[in-house]
């Protein structure tokens, strides 16, 4: 893959052997011809490229992937994502369709192919990186698959040789009502659509959303759902390949040219999931203690206010509520002792014994005071970001965690907002619209802007805060910090440092 | 989670010994220990043999109720007595793995040990450690539990790499226990006497070795039964008869409905065959889907099944909690057909959920037509005490009478279907099903709060299952005592096991047939695979 320096003598190797031939079979498909625009990346590349190309191609692909991941964190719909990605893809990773007759067709496809395999090397090392890589690569594949023209797509799918059993017309007629019901009433006429029969395990997402008819372990997938099946196949193959790559990595007999590049690449793939460190949250002069939480709660975002109110009402919170709230409190700077005091006094209906037995451990675990080695070294979990609260563990019966903007009905949300003092009709209507468009961040920021209207105007007029310090909030702890600073403008002259920006700017 | 203790703290030296050695060694050690303790307790009362001693104490309990101090002294003796029996009364001798507990000693020292009474006085409670120990020792179906998790008669990694977690009497939680055979598991349970134990996944390496591995990634869960957990506390907003941990036969009907709906979906839609439902001992039920295909599913597939079966979403704040697409997916439509009759009888009649004003407000919230709602509200407010059945019928009657001109009949029908689902559809604790490495209480353990045994529920007759008549541990131990050998000589040759003498019998037999069917299927798969491979593999 890399142009080798033949005159170089490697002290680690016995001379007289061409190590290159030892490691790879004779590259029979050195000049691979790319028939299709899309690629399942089954065959590794074997042709030579320069070191500059190696790095540049990888960086280009990484740009695309990072942006794609950011789109998903911002809750963009598939259509918006496609729109957003189009110019970026054109710039960094163009892929023309076979019919376009472009002269750079093969070169584009080669770049796509090679850059994928370079990143595979860079991201195979840890479980976490593998998972993220496979996720964004699947997203990219899906995006391209949808954009592909029909003929290309058909030819590509046929080339995959996936063993899908076509449902006979008798069987189709027999299950007609069930098939139509699973498709949301479509197709109107059962003859209009072809169906495949596959093991349900191959289409888990269709099963999860009840979008296919299931019978005896077989899923009856309509032709138009081909996409999700192809993508699932892509993901599963990539996952397997990544696993194999990670096992081969330690044996990658490599000199010091590729490894630094690869390490550099994987480090730059940072999590936009705003990681909260204690140093950025410290609020000098603030009284962060158990007895002061009630007062501080005025500066909490709605999700935490709701948790706080539920806690005060029921003198109890369920597991995920406790976890979300504990970590938030940890993030605002409440130390472990104070946090234990807070929970103990809040759970007023239970005995010390029960508290010590059932709750104390969890709080300590969240602070990294107990638990496995890695938990303690990492100081427990980090406070949940909006992204995590929005996407993981939706609240069930009797639970108060989650994001009210997302998990509440409009009526209940409005009622809650009014309870916490947001009564302006304009704002409430805006929140309702945001919620309908699933822009939960926007709704939350809208409320923040309303509540801190005067203070924001003041700092803007004074020019004491830059616009970077007022960008969209994506973390409950960021919400609290900014709110607290704004409300205590005069009292605590705090030098807010410029560089303390969240990792990713969210300009929805 | 209570504080966990790393297993190393309690590990015994026999971990490193071979199976047989460990058994013999451990037992003799313990024998010595207990014998010494016993003789000290007896204060020199050495001439009494085991058997006569037991007889005496029986009489003592019967007669000397008022002599408290003496009774206590005797009770201590029981304890040591039971301990002694622990060591010898290995009645569940396993044909495949003959117990290594020196058979000669067993016969010579106390030949009547298996038949000896358990001495559970009327005052003993289920949570009494000795009661628990007797249960594990004499009644727990270790052999079938082993076969169930091992999927074949010869010990394999399916059992050996399986995690067990013990909740000890002091509420300490002991994770990552594993055992090569059922005998060793039984021995450790008798030693630690946990108040309950849970079953986790099969790991890629032995859970006990997890800290000695060079790479942490080589220790990961690879297989576990697909599990479901349904708990009646999740029905608290719709059940009116009980709340919290309490249950009665009325609200148990929710569980019957849940079992019917989930069971049929797992069998018909997903094609699973080996599904066992287990009463959780107090207020819920667990399902264990044991098919090979189900066991090896990853988290994504488990999540898919959980999502497929989840119809009621969101908490109390989310407003309408049933949002299903129309036309109804075949699973939802079938569930609705199953649930409709239950809705009429078990919900409307027995629970009467919309009795008062505030309660029927919730019903009105779920109905789409405003004019109709007004009319209904007027009617119901003027007639307090009108039953929920009548109120449900009123909706239909008033809609027909044309109160609301702009009534969308289809929307109303859909809303009514949603209401039926909201009040009857199973409420799953979905997290249990989603993850491969979730621990779930083992079948046949005793619920420490109620003393009831977590018995399997026969799905064919799940309507007959009554949680309030399931055997409690104290009942069972008494039944052993009261049992008399039948007169006819036929059964005399064959020694009955203790569980066969009690009302636990039908449950263990059900479990046995379930396990046998599962093992048969696994065997067929193995044979088939070997044939396909055609001896190409050299083991």
TrEMBL record, chain A:
<dbReference type="GO" id="GO:0006270">
    <property type="term" value="P:DNA replication initiation"/>
</dbReference>
<dbReference type="InterPro" id="IPR016558">
    <property type="entry name" value="DNA_primase_lsu_euk"/>
</dbReference>
<feature type="domain" description="DNA primase large subunit C-terminal">
    <location>
        <begin position="298"/>
        <end position="480"/>
    </location>
</feature>
<feature type="binding site">
    <location>
        <position position="444"/>
    </location>
    <ligand>
        <name>[4Fe-4S] cluster</name>
    </ligand>
</feature>
<dbReference type="GO" id="GO:0006302">
    <property type="term" value="P:double-strand break repair"/>
</dbReference>
<dbReference type="GO" id="GO:0003899">
    <property type="term" value="F:DNA-directed RNA polymerase activity"/>
</dbReference>
<feature type="binding site">
    <location>
        <position position="403"/>
    </location>
    <ligand>
        <name>[4Fe-4S] cluster</name>
    </ligand>
</feature>
<protein>
    <recommendedName>
        <fullName>DNA primase large subunit</fullName>
    </recommendedName>
</protein>
<dbReference type="InterPro" id="IPR058560">
    <property type="entry name" value="DNA_primase_C"/>
</dbReference>
<keyword id="KW-0235">DNA replication</keyword>
<dbReference type="Pfam" id="PF04104">
    <property type="entry name" value="DNA_primase_lrg"/>
</dbReference>
<dbReference type="GO" id="GO:0005635">
    <property type="term" value="C:nuclear envelope"/>
</dbReference>
<keyword id="KW-0408">Iron</keyword>
<dbReference type="GO" id="GO:0005658">
    <property type="term" value="C:alpha DNA polymerase:primase complex"/>
</dbReference>
<feature type="binding site">
    <location>
        <position position="303"/>
    </location>
    <ligand>
        <name>[4Fe-4S] cluster</name>
    </ligand>
</feature>
<dbReference type="GO" id="GO:0051539">
    <property type="term" value="F:4 iron, 4 sulfur cluster binding"/>
</dbReference>
<keyword id="KW-0411">Iron-sulfur</keyword>
<keyword id="KW-0479">Metal-binding</keyword>
<keyword id="KW-0639">Primosome</keyword>
<keyword id="KW-0238">DNA-binding</keyword>
<dbReference type="GO" id="GO:0006269">
    <property type="term" value="P:DNA replication, synthesis of primer"/>
</dbReference>
<dbReference type="GO" id="GO:0003697">
    <property type="term" value="F:single-stranded DNA binding"/>
</dbReference>
Automatic annotation (TrEMBL), chain B:
<feature type="region of interest" description="Disordered">
    <location>
        <begin position="95"/>
        <end position="127"/>
    </location>
</feature>
<keyword id="KW-0548">Nucleotidyltransferase</keyword>
<feature type="compositionally biased region" description="Polar residues">
    <location>
        <begin position="45"/>
        <end position="55"/>
    </location>
</feature>
<dbReference type="GO" id="GO:0005658">
    <property type="term" value="C:alpha DNA polymerase:primase complex"/>
</dbReference>
<dbReference type="Pfam" id="PF01896">
    <property type="entry name" value="DNA_primase_S"/>
</dbReference>
<keyword id="KW-0240">DNA-directed RNA polymerase</keyword>
<feature type="region of interest" description="Disordered">
    <location>
        <begin position="1"/>
        <end position="68"/>
    </location>
</feature>
<keyword id="KW-0479">Metal-binding</keyword>
<keyword id="KW-0235">DNA replication</keyword>
<keyword id="KW-0639">Primosome</keyword>
<dbReference type="InterPro" id="IPR002755">
    <property type="entry name" value="DNA_primase_S"/>
</dbReference>
<dbReference type="InterPro" id="IPR014052">
    <property type="entry name" value="DNA_primase_ssu_euk/arc"/>
</dbReference>
<keyword id="KW-0804">Transcription</keyword>
<protein>
    <recommendedName>
        <fullName>DNA primase</fullName>
        <ecNumber>2.7.7.-</ecNumber>
    </recommendedName>
</protein>
<dbReference type="GO" id="GO:0046872">
    <property type="term" value="F:metal ion binding"/>
</dbReference>
<dbReference type="GO" id="GO:0006269">
    <property type="term" value="P:DNA replication, synthesis of primer"/>
</dbReference>
<dbReference type="GO" id="GO:0003899">
    <property type="term" value="F:DNA-directed RNA polymerase activity"/>
</dbReference>
<comment type="similarity">
    <text>Belongs to the eukaryotic-type primase small subunit family.</text>
</comment>
<keyword id="KW-0808">Transferase</keyword>
